[in-house]
Amino acid sequence: MSDRRAELADAAIVTLAREGMRGLTHRAVDRAAQVAEGSTSYYFRTREALLVGTLDRLAELTNAEITATSATDLDSVAALIEHWLTAGRDRMLARFELTLESTRRPTLRAAMHRLGGEFRAKAETVLTDAGVPDAKRRAANLVAHIDGLVFDQLAEVGPVRSRADLFDAITPLFAAAFRGDTQLSI
């Protein structure tokens, strides 16, 4: 993604997180990025292009973080989740906004499936490399559980969790994924 497109997508992420889907307009992104009016529509001609571009940027940033994190070091994973809930909060809020919007927009849905597949494939690779049987199914379950944990914290449905609490929450998930435990002891 070019520097200007990335800059505008970053502004779209912040706008989306703070204003929601209705507040995400080309003009709002121009204001957030402090660029001349019309800049966003030059790089992202349609709303659909803006949404997909924003999703691509979210995936790019998240992918870099996941790649830099050891999936077998639970403290590192807990730290990453904590980061997503604090400094990366806007990105996660924007991601969930786009996830819900994708249920109504086929182009966005296709992008969401493509990118979600990439993340599940990364988890599958880690599990396959560890010799875990049925790695594809277990990877999909692990990603879904982590997404649920992140959503729960962002929506403030459950109690606020410290890094230690996050570690405690993911430990049985990873045990189930890596060892094939059929019962989670939570």
Automatic annotation (TrEMBL):
Residues 2-62 form the HTH tetR-type domain. Pfam families: TetR_C_31, TetR_N. One of its GO terms (molecular function) is DNA binding. Residues 25-44 bind DNA. Keywords: DNA-binding. Signal peptide: none annotated. Gene3D superfamilies: Tetracycline Repressor, domain 2 (1.10.357.10). PROSITE patterns: HTH_TETR_2. This is DNA-binding transcriptional regulator YbjK. It comes from Kibdelosporangium banguiense.
